[in-house]
């Protein structure tokens, strides 16, 4: 790892100085403050965040979410489980606006081609998207999601600071100390979260919670916090704490891990036995059990030691058995993109795979403008023919709604007062 120190280490120190000079060490994150949800533009930039994820708080969120879900018909329940990508940049085209009116997705995910613009333009675009979905979907705003990992994965244009690659923090830990590196991770994550929350982003499809090894390093490159299991576990938690403090819901990825194959093009296989897999999953387990991590993204990898017949994202043994049962995860299970080669290799269309994932225990599925109608129709069709139970769909929607309540995106409907 010494070869990376000069580049990553100085990149990290420079970015820390920029952040601290702009924000001021110890000041409250811009646009976000603890406290109850205020009335007004729910989920808009500056919306107050309702912190707290202890057992009693989360039980209350789930109860409030159940009340909201009980007021939704099948169409709105099916919309809540969709995490939709958009084709547009800076403005909503007539086609995309019509799509969101018809299918008010539970979340919208944005990429570089959507966000490569000045901050004011990005803020206005995100607000337009959120408001359109809210007006069309029972007043429930969508999660506004982005992959904000740092390093190689930076989706924003000018004016938004780029976080260092995860590998830079392992370099810092080796050069200085693990304690200093973990402090830097949490502080930079908090400052960056405040910056993107001010734009309207509320969900981060990060961090990568995979321990670097000889197999996955060719796929992950600098996106992992390194080869040391203990440091990676602590670093993932530090990143999530920092983001959470500023009101950003993190989705740790890609459970349970990856092999040397890129799932975008082919089917990866994790051939390790269950004891080794459990060690690999410790960063996820720690974030789940100690922080009540709001989301976990599941990869399309095959894990024969757990389920020799289905991709992890389609497997009840992985989702309901391992992630929910063994690790006690109660948040949103997000299935990775079903347009990837790892799924098509199994002979499933994105629509069929999305239904299978929901049946297996996923709560949100990724869709694109070209597939959203087919996926949405497949979910409703699966409900009608009882392939997908209404109880399972409502449970998935409740988990999405509970995290929206937790992060200050919706005002709960009091029980008995629809």
Automatic annotation (TrEMBL):
Domain Glycoside hydrolase family 3 N-terminal per the UniProt entry, residue ranges: 94-401
Alphabetized GO MF terms: beta-N-acetylhexosaminidase activity
InterPro entries in UniProt: GH, Glyco_hydro_3_N, Glyco_hydro_3_N_sf, NagZ_Beta-hexosaminidase
Highest taxon of the lineage: Bacteria
Keyword list, A-Z: Glycosidase, Hydrolase
Species name: Leadbettera azotonutricia (strain ATCC BAA-888 / DSM 13862 / ZAS-9) (Treponema azotonutricium)
Reactions mediated catalytically: Hydrolysis of terminal non-reducing N-acetyl-D-hexosamine residues in N-acetyl-beta-D-hexosaminides
GO biological process: carbohydrate metabolic process; peptidoglycan turnover
The protein's name in its UniProt record: beta-N-acetylhexosaminidase
Enzyme Commission no: 3.2.1.52
Family statement drawn from the similarity comment of this UniProt entry: Belongs to the glycosyl hydrolase 3 family.
Pfam family membership, one: Glyco_hydro_3
């Amino acid at each position: 790892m010494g070869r990376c120190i000069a580049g990553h280490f100085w990149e990290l120190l420079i970015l820390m100085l920029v952040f601290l000079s702009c924000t001021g060490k110890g000041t409250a994150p811009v646009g976000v403050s603890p406290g109850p949800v205020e009335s007004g533009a729910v989920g808009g930039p500056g919306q107050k965040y309702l912190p707290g994820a202890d057992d009693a708080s989360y039980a209350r969120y789930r109860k409030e979410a159940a009340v909201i879900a009980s007021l939704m018909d099948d169409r709105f329940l099916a919309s809540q489980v969709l995490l939709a990508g958009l084709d547009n940049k800076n403005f909503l085209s007539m086609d995309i606006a019509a799509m969101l009116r018809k299918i008010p997705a539970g979340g919208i995910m944005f990429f570089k081609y959507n966000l490569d613009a000045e901050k004011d333009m990005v803020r206005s675009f995100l607000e337009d998207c959120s408001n359109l979905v809210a007006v069309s979907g029972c007043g429930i705003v969508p999660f506004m999601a982005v992959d904000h990992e740092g390093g190689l994965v930076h989706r924003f244009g000018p004016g938004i600071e780029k976080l260092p690659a995860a590998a830079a923090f392992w370099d810092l830990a080796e050069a200085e100390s693990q304690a200093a590196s973990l402090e830097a991770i949490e502080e930079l994550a908090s400052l960056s979260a405040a910056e993107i929350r001010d734009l309207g982003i509320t969900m981060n499809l990060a961090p990568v919670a995979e321990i670097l090894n000889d197999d996955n390093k060719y796929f992950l490159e600098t996106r992992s916090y390194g080869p040391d299991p203990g440091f990676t576990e602590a670093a993932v938690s530090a990143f999530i704490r920092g983001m959470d403090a500023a009101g950003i819901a993190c989705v740790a990825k890609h459970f349970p891990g990856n092999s040397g194959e890129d799932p975008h093009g082919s089917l990866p296989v994790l051939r390790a036995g269950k004891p080794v897999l459990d060690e690999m999953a410790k960063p996820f387990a720690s974030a789940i059990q100690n922080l009540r991590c709001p989301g976990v993204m599941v990869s399309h990898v095959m894990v024969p030691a757990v389920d020799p017949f289905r991709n992890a994202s389609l497997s009840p043994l992985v989702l309901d058995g391992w992630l929910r049962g063994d690790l006690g995860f109660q948040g949103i299970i997000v299935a990775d993109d079903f347009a990837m080669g790892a799924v098509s290799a199994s002979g499933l269309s994105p629509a069929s795979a999305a239904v299978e994932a929901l049946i297996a225990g996923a709560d949100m599925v990724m869709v694109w403008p070209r597939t959203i109608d087919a996926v949405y129709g497949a979910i409703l069709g699966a409900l009608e023919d009882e392939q997908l139970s209404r109880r399972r769909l409502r449970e998935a929607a409740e988990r999405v709604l509970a995290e929206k309540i937790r992060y200050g995106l919706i005002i709960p409907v009091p029980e008995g007062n629809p």
